[in-house]
Write a structure and sequence with these properties.
Helix content is about 5%, strand content about 40%. It is mainly beta. Strand 25 and strand 26 form a beta hairpin.
Length: about 375
């Protein structure tokens, strides 16, 4: 993939990124778009998945296998965590998080729980209170994401529990839940694995990234970027992948209307995170644009993804795709970006479920201290 921006190589020392013994003698290369800097915000977080940001700037990080939720606090605003708290441990796959009106919401295997007034109770958060108990089980393949929408409802994606199958609802869908009444509505169906979605700051339309199935080769099927224009629309899985790749195992019902993707990504880049940038620290051309965390391939003959890209959107169409950060050093993945979040100062948090880190992407020209620190780091390599 070509990139319009010139790229500058930033070398991170082994203290920042844990590497294998055979690679310790070699510098680890992370490619960052010119003008930006990348720093380590926090480490040792387990299989860090999705994040949520509190009103006071607390960063909450969920996990899948680790069963833990942690709260990270940068009390002196120097761009690095200096306090951390364990909100909960021993939970059932608490990957999906959402923060709303002072409370932290967590999706477990079959329910959603809430931690009330969490930022004032980080030392003693107590046990989460159940607010919804009708999520399906089998989370080993059914990954989730969770955000409050502009309408005040809690949106939850429930992926299919398989590589390819005809999933039973609510598997393979995005649902919207009224947390006060418990009522729910299917917003999108026919999806495979969605862990990244967000609403456009321009018109509040819901966009989401969907991962294509495996074992159809290196180039098929493309991963997808979709938009919800009609509530309840079907996006093809398992009958049609991307725009026109037919599934050999299942025949599409003749009466089924499939909504094609707005944009096709290369196969196996694994777009786990999706976020519209609402900050002001980055230059204006990045404002209100879509950023995607490509977690990277795992069963491809050569690796692809392992990067954060920006999709330029004009008139509800994707017109360009550019790499902002690449964590792939040749065939060696330095990190696997999973989730993205805009920080209070306009920088971007990037979670990494490979090494258990959270990185902070910042625009150096807007912060002389960070720019000077980055230059000093380069001189020390």
């Amino acid at each position: 993939m070509s990139c319009r921006f010139s790229l500058a190589l930033v070398t991170l020392v082994a203290a920042i990124v844990s590497v294998s013994a055979s690679a310790e003698s070699q510098p680890i290369m992370i490619t960052v778009t010119k003008g930006f800097g990348l720093s380590l915000y926090a480490s040792d977080l387990g299989d860090a998945k999705q994040m949520a940001l509190g009103d006071k700037g607390t960063l909450f990080v969920g996990t899948h296998k680790s069963g833990m939720i942690q709260a990270l606090v940068d009390s002196n605003a120097d761009g690095r965590v200096d306090k951390r708290y364990v909100v909960a441990k021993g939970l059932e796959y608490p990957e999906a998080l959402a923060f709303h009106n002072g409370d932290l919401y967590v999706a477990e295997e079959e329910r959603i729980i809430r931690y009330v007034d969490i930022e004032n109770r980080l030392r003693r958060p107590g046990r989460g209170k159940e607010v919804y108990d009708r999520l399906p089980g089998k989370p080993n393949k059914s990954h989730r994401a969770m955000h409050f929408g502009p309408d005040g409802r809690l949106y939850v994606s429930v992926g299919a529990p398989c590589n390819v199958c005809e999933p039973q609802a609510p598997f393979g869908s995005i649902i919207a839940i009224d947390v006060d009444t418990g009522s729910s509505e299917q917003i999108a169906t026919g999806i495979r694995n969605v862990t990244g979605f967000d609403w456009s700051p321009v018109d509040d339309k819901l966009w989401f990234a969907d991962l294509g199935r495996n074992w159809m080769g290196d180039r098929l099927p493309p991963d997808e970027i979709n938009r919800v224009d009609s509530v309840g629309a079907h996006y093809g899985f398992p009958y049609v992948h991307a725009t026109s790749v037919l599934e050999p195992s299942y025949e599409k019902p003749k009466s089924l209307k499939v909504t094609p993707p707005v944009f096709e990504l290369p196969a196996h880049v694994a777009p786990m995170g999706l976020m519209f940038y609402r900050g002001k620290q980055f230059p204006e051309k990045y404002h209100d644009q879509m950023f995607v965390a490509e977690n990277g391939s795992w069963n491809r003959s050569s690796k692809i993804g392992y990067q954060v890209t920006m999709l330029t959107i004009e008139d509800n169409e994707v017109t360009d795709r550019q790499t902002v950060v690449s964590f792939l050093d040749g065939e060696f993945p330095v990190a696997r970006p999973y989730s993205l979040l805009t920080s209070p100062d306009g920088a971007m948090y990037i979670s990494d479920d490979l090494k258990g880190n959270v990185y902070r992407l910042f625009y150096k020209d807007n912060n002389a201290q960070e720019s000077d620190a980055s230059e000093q780091q380069d001189q020390n390599q």
